[in-house]
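BUG: 3D viewer hangs when loading the predicted structure for this chain

Environment: internal workstation, default settings.
Expected: structure renders.
Actual: progress bar stalls at 90%.

Input used:
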Amino acid sequence: MTLRDYRDHDISGATVVARAAFERALDAHLSWRAGAEGHLDCALREAPKFTMAHVLRVYLSLCSRDIARVQQARAAYAQAATLPATARERLHIAAAGAALDDDFKTFNALLHELLTQYPRDVLALQVGHGLDYATGDTEGMSARISAALPAWSQEVPGYHALLAMQAFSLVESARYPAAADHALRALELKPADARAHHALIHVFEMTGNAAGGVRWMRDRLTFWAIDTISATHCWWHWALFHLAQGEVGAALKLYDRRVRVGRSVEVADLIDAASLLWRIELLDRDTSNRWQELASAWAPHIDDGYCTFSDLHLMLALVGARDWSGASSLENSLLRSHTLRTRYGETTRLVGLPACRGILAFGRGDYTRATELLGTIPAFARRIGGSHAQRDLLNLTLLDASRRLHRQMRPVAA
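Structure tokens produced before the viewer hung:
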């Protein structure tokens, strides 16, 4: 007898026990909870030829800005490609292969085909949402979820995740009341949905309600800070709320006690650390020797040649640490990549190289060059992905460079 998943799709190679473990892994992935890999291990021990379990393993590695982790997906992909598969599963395998080949155009087309035929394929929605986020396709992000929603109801497992995805999409489209409504509805269905909490945090951020954001986060600490994959990033948001209220010391304490307390080498955590410390640096506050530790953690990624968003934050750490040799190495790596006819080559050409050179000029006190270079970025900035709140760092640096240049040019009183 052919088994079906909890949204009524045929699945190949599964058992009832393996299916239950797979659904737990999928739910953890959708809700940004820890433990997805462990549940997936259970599913594959029970059913080693469970095709969609191997596909999910591919996607768990692909959803990263760390090239080493992305490469881990190849083994799972190779195994999935040899297994019996339904038409839906074959589309997933083809999409994963396109992503591994850095062919995001084909990846996106295959996801569109998947969702046209199977609008309740929540994993396709999940990876499509991630693709839209990574490429800065704000309109596509919202349209993808909107097209699927009519096929869903709150009785379908995973519906809370669609609401949370759409909440974030609406934030990025500056539709803040609607975003809050979707996130709250998601939390009514699943209070432990860390992604929905994160979307609401963005609403507080983008509407300038820092005090409300702090209250929200404090009251719901156990939902987003414990056993989630987004805890460090949410602590980063809390620190930004402190900065918005002029509480720089409190933000620096969060850097030490939450953001860098475990000296994580995960790229996502390194991005948050560099972003927060740079914002504090722009306020002329003493960051002491923190930059040296952070730059050392970032150093192995200088030649990654994979993600422009990561490159920018790596350059922040190198410049913050005054590691001019490392910064020069990164610039040379970008020069080797910016002519490539790939997604990464394009984002390096449009944003990565000029932005990193602008950050480097800023660090060396050349504010004229910094403003010239960073001033070319806004029209293309969203192509590197991330949120408006994250990319705002480029605008903050440009504004500060302009202020410093103005002070340099101000006539000295006689």
